């Protein structure tokens, strides 16, 4: 299926070319660049490039495809990019087959019953990829929206209730309490809590973590809410927002968002973004009331290994 391409493993010298390919795909799939070098570096730190990733290069030496098997809480992510212009070829299918084969091998060797699922995230606009995954036995299990808000207009200043205080994070001292708050706030039927070490490694990665962008809410020395943010080249990003169940309904989530918006505006960002699952109607309503609008619609396709 790959007779028109030369297949090889990536090295660190290829990272800029892979990012450029991902951005070409972003522009086709969602209309604007949506990939980041820091995230790609993080992905590559977590995998063995000599076994878990592939590059497909055409006869002119141009990179046209990239596939990787990435860690995931319930199994593995099958991440595949096929360049604009390759839609009518078997490139996407071929890379899916390679990645799925590698993912199955890793998961079978690990033999963890909690990690038996393959997932792939695809833009709702890319029909050929959706069809390939459907034909390969994947089904849509989730819809994810990326929402953006322009920061040019005025942002209401939060008015914190009496007894509620906002402070910055103290790395090391706050880590476990933050993790517990996030897991409790995100809890729902069928969700597997993220282990502390996994959460800490991902959220506090040195290439991503900026302590000045993590904000905590307290009352009587009890942690009751947080908004944890990052910076990307073109926008600020709200990665996790949580308010404990006993303190919901008082507008604290909206106030945390407003504070994050103000901080990003002061840091010179033109817009802010976040991701939310479509089924989370409460969060979607909160974000839309805060002026955020959908710009990307992703399908999560998944398949259980046998």
Q: Care to give the gist of this entry?
A:
With 306 residues, the protein is an alpha+beta fold. It is 33% helix and 30% strand.
Q: Which band does the percent of strand residues land in?
A: 25-35%
List low-confidence stretches: none
Helix and strand composition category: alpha+beta
The main β sheet shows up as: 12 strands, mixed
- Percent helix, as a range, is 25-40%
How many angstroms does the end-to-end distance come to? Answer: 24 Å
Cα radius of gyration in angstroms: 20 Å
Overall number of strands = 12
- Please state the oligomeric state of the protein chains shown: single chain
How would you write the strand order of the largest sheet? 1-2-3-4-5-12-6-11-10-9-8-7
Mean pLDDT: 95
Q: Count of helical segments?
A: 9
Query: Judging from the principal axes of the Cα atoms, what is the shape?
Result: globular
* Strand/helix succession: EHHHEEEHEHEEHHEEEHEHE
Give a description of the structure.
There is one protein chain. By secondary structure, this protein is an alpha+beta fold. It has helices at 15-29, 37-45, 49-52, 91-110, 127-135, 175-186, 196-203, 252-266, 281-289, and strands at residues 6-8, 53-57, 63-72, 75-82, 117-123, 139-150, 164-168, 214-219, 222-231, 236-243, 271-277, 293-304. The chain contains 9 helices and 12 strands. A 12-stranded mixed β-sheet has the order 1-2-3-4-5-12-6-11-10-9-8-7, sandwiched between helices. The radius of gyration is 20 Å and the shape is globular.
């Amino acid at each position: 299926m790959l007779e028109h391409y030369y297949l090889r493993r990536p090295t660190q010298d290829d990272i800029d070319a892979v990012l450029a390919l991902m951005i070409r795909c972003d522009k086709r799939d969602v209309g604007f660049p949506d990939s980041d070098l820091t995230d790609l570096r993080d992905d590559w730190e977590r995998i063995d490039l000599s076994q878990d990733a592939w590059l497909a290069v055409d006869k002119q030496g141009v990179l046209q495809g990239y596939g990787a098997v990435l860690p995931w809480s319930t199994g593995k992510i099958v991440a595949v990019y096929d360049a604009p212009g390759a839609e009518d070829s078997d490139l996407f299918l071929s890379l899916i087959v390679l990645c799925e084969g590698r993912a199955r091998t890793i998961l079978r060797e690990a033999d963890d019953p909690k990690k038996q699922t393959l997932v792939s995230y695809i833009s709702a606009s890319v029909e050929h990829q959706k069809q390939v995954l459907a034909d390969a036995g994947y089904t849509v299990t989730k819809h994810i929206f990326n929402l953006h808000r322009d920061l040019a207009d005025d942002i209401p200043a939060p008015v914190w209730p009496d007894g509620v205080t906002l402070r910055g994070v103290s790395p090391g001292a706050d880590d476990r309490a933050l993790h517990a708050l996030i897991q409790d706030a995100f809890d729902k039927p069928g969700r597997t809590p993220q282990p502390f070490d996994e959460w800490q490694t991902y959220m506090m990665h040195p290439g991503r973590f900026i302590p000045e962008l993590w904000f905590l809410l307290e009352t009587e020395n009890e942690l009751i809410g947080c908004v944890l943010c990052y910076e990307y080249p073109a926008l600020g990003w709200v990665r996790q927002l949580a308010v404990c169940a006993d303190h919901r309904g008082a507008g604290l989530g909206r106030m945390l968002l407003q504070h994050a918006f103000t901080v990003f505006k002061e840091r010179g960002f033109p817009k802010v973004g976040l991701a939310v699952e479509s089924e989370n109607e409460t969060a979607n309503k909160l974000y839309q009331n805060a002026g955020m609008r959908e710009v990307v619609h992703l399908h999560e396709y998944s398949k259980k290994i046998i």
